[in-house]
Amino acid sequence: MTRRLFLYQGAGRSIREIARMAGMKPSTLHFRLCVKGMSVADAIAMPITPKHRLNPEGRQPRLYEFRGRMLDAKTIATMIGRHRDTVYRRVVGNRVLDIGETPDPFSGFQDAPSTALLITHDGETLPAAAWAKRMGISKETIYSRIAHGWHPVDAITTPPDPRYTMRTIRFRNRRIIRRIASTFRPMTGGHLPTFANPLGTGVGRHVHHLQSGETA
């Protein structure tokens, strides 16, 4: 594969060579030449702005419509005197439901969070728990997605990653096996009861023989 050459100082040179001579990163020069379509002279003359100066205010929070204004979740939580998670549970589309727009008061969200969040999809409005049952997704997954900025419809229609589902199943199975093993261990000396000897074949049997003076 032939490298692409650019005319610089009277000779055809690669991006890496030009970047080294100009004292800039090859990735920056490549972006300006190949992506933005700038000339070599303009790409080199353009000042390099540090990332922290491109957006000195940092990432702006997502805004929601609440009481006729566009506000972030933290501001809304301060106005209503509740935790920010409560605000996320009231999000419907790009709006945050006010007290009078929900079937339950704020205390109801703490007592029964599974029925507090109402989501409208395809003309049907159901609680998050009902959508979770219909879509085969846990309601905890729906709440977590919305808390991380997902649109409510995306939160209920996006299937879970099968890798995490299988990992959860394997973890649950290991926990069940450990519970069964811990139940039989005191009875069998560490082995499952697949033998007729009630003393087992493990530590429990040897302890019995030592106490009675018998040989194993």
Automatic annotation (TrEMBL):
Keywords: DNA-binding. It comes from the Bacteria. The keyword DNA-binding applies. One of its GO terms (molecular function) is DNA binding. This is Putative DNA-binding transcriptional regulator AlpA. It comes from Sphingosinicella soli. The lineage of its organism: Bacteria, Pseudomonadati, Pseudomonadota, Alphaproteobacteria, Sphingomonadales.
